[in-house]
Write a structure and sequence with these properties.
CATH class of the largest domain: Alpha Beta
Number of domains: 3
Distance between the termini: 49 Å
CATH topology of the largest domain: FAD/NAD(P)-binding domain
CATH superfamily of the largest domain: FAD/NAD(P)-binding domain
Oligomer: single chain
Structural class: alpha+beta
Largest sheet: 8 strands, mixed
Bound molecules: flavin-adenine dinucleotide
Helix content: 25-40%
Length: about 475
């Protein structure tokens, strides 16, 4: 009998395994891929140094080949590449080769006492006679096996191999993500032909197209990346017909192209049920702007480690009621910040490029305060609101902004405040959960999907 069965040995699974095993708990991780194939979808990912320090992640020294490069966090830029607004991401962001880094995380987990079985695909949950999760089944080349555990932690990413096996009666959402809930990311590794260009002067995030220019490790190159809903072809169409048309990059050659998926969805309403927890991409814990999730997942992970360790040490059951504080503590902090940002982003990305350029230039809504903190959360005071109103009124009077656009931004702001207030009122116990969930469902239904803001012309061109 294990204390914890973890499904998936990527960033979230390895981190959680190490944290729990190092306290002496019995931890088993099942990973469907063989070691050589783990996390191969894309080569380099990055995390900020302060976040790595916060979560106790290994920071390889500059000479370590796992470390690809480091750079200062890049700014948000207008649709035509102007008016950079510095991000609050921090002074140093570290690029790492993902497969190699995850294997390092796995070694740390094993050293702490966790067991990892590779080539072991989780197939189903096991329930006890009272309907509580009591373990899981997994398949290896030798056939199907069963393992009993006090807790099953789903860290299997988008497939959510365990979460989707929960019954419809569970407080944890058991649905699969659709093409409207996933960012299909395409990364173009490029090298500029003119070697006198400093690619870092072009870096930035372009919210209007969910596009970015970031370091690639090549001093003459960059990663030009883009994410879009519905499919990679939609992302490539936005990249070619909008992003590259409006933002002038010097001539380059493409070295390689990588593709991958990341969730773009409000977090599940409840992470926990009896004997179960959803974590990482399987619980949709990615940042609302760019869909990055390696460190944002660990905010919930830290709360989970704290609550679950205490319960195990006290010999208490890992039940829905006993673990409920994980939901409450997360929802009232990062959960509220991230999920209230989604409707605001829908409003912010609604203006056409020329209107957005005006807003950027005049620091209205596309301001340092809002854009610099979109992934960390911010509070607007009355002075900020008064300044927004003043800028908007003057923009409409000068015909730089249309009332329809302002209506959409205003709606985004109001919906954002409604979600924030509702998440503040997250229930103290599962008994008031269904009432809270029903109101949350209603709010999200009114808000709709960020995917609905996809340009209809692009959808038509890609045959949707
Ligand atoms: C192109 C791209 C670039 C990105 N760049 C960044 C970045 O720079 N920084 C950042 O923070 N985030 C980035 N992200 C997001 C980041 O990749 C994810 O948020 C993060 O990997 C989530 O980690 P996870 O462990 O929760 O899930 P995953 O990394 O998806 O890992 C899930 C693991 O579970 C395993 N698994 C799946 N099904 C089963 C099963 N049935 N049985 C057993 N095992 C199973 C998988 O093989 C996998 O190893 C990027 C995403 C993409 C697509």
């Amino acid at each position: 009998m294990y204390d914890i069965l973890i499904v998936g040995a990527s960033t979230t699974g390895c981190w959680f395994a190490e944290k729990m095993a190092s306290q002496g708990f019995r931890v088993l991780v099942v990973e469907k891929d063989e070691p050589v194939n783990v996390s191969r979808a894309y080569d380099v990912f990055h995390m900020s140094r302060p976040e790595m320090e916060q979560f106790g992640l290994i920071i390889p020294e500059p000479e370590n080949p796992i470390r690809a490069f480091s750079f200062a966090d890049s700014p948000m830029r207008s649709p035509y590449g102007n008016y950079p607004k510095a991000s609050s991401g921090g002074p140093e962001t570290i690029g790492l080769h993902k497969h190699e880094y995850i294997m390092l995380m796995a070694q740390r987990a094993i050293k702490a006492g966790a067991e990892i079985i590779y080539g072991a695909s989780f197939t189903d949950l096991i329930f006890d006679k009272n309907g509580k999760v009591a373990g899981g089944k997994y398949k290896t080349a030798d056939g199907e096996k069963e393992v009993r555990a006090k807790l099953v932690a789903d860290c299997s990413g988008i497939p959510s191999a365990a979460r989707t096996k929960l019954p419809d009666t569970s407080v944890v959402d058991n649905h699969k993500l659709t093409e409207k809930d996933i960012l299909y990311v395409v990364l173009y590794y490029v090298e500029y032909l003119d070697k006198t260009i400093d690619p870092r002067t072009l870096d930035g995030f372009f919210l209007q197209y969910k596009s970015w220019s970031a370091p690639s490790g090549n001093p003459n190159g960059a990663i030009l990346g883009i994410g879009a809903f519905y499919g990679y072809d939609v992302a490539q169409e936005v990249f070619n017909s909008q992003f590259l048309k409006n933002v002038a990059f010097p001539e380059y050659k493409i070295e390689k192209i990588e593709k991958g998926m990341t969730p773009y969805h409000r977090s599940v309403y409840s992470f926990v049920d009896d004997g179960f927890i959803a974590m990482g991409d399987a619980a949709f814990l990615t940042k609302p702007t760019c869909g990055e999730g390696c460190t944002s997942s660990l905010v919930q992970g830290e709360i989970a480690v704290d609550v679950i360790s205490k319960l195990l040490k006290e010999g208490k059951e890992l039940s829905r009621d006993n673990m409920w504080s994980i939901n409450k503590r997360y929802m009232q902090t990062q959960g509220k910040d991230f999920d209230s940002m989604r409707p605001l982003l829908m409003g912010i990305i609604s203006p056409g490029c020329d209107e957005a350029e005006h807003l950027f230039a005049n620091d209205i809504i596309f301001s340092q305060k809002i854009l610099g903190n979109v992934d960390t959360g911010f509070e607007l005071n009355t002075k900020d609101i008064a300044q927004i109103i003043k800028g908007v009124v003057s923009g409409i009077a000068k015909k730089d902004l249309s009332p329809a656009t302002i209506g959409k931004i205003g709606k985004g702001l109001i919906n954002s405040m409604k979600i924030g207030a509702h998440y503040d009122a997250y229930p103290d116990s599962p008994y008031e959960f269904y009432k809270w969930k029903s109101k949350a469902d209603k709010l999200w239904k009114q808000i709709g999907y960020v995917a609905d803001t996809t340009d209809p012309e692009i959808l038509k061109k890609t045959g949707r």
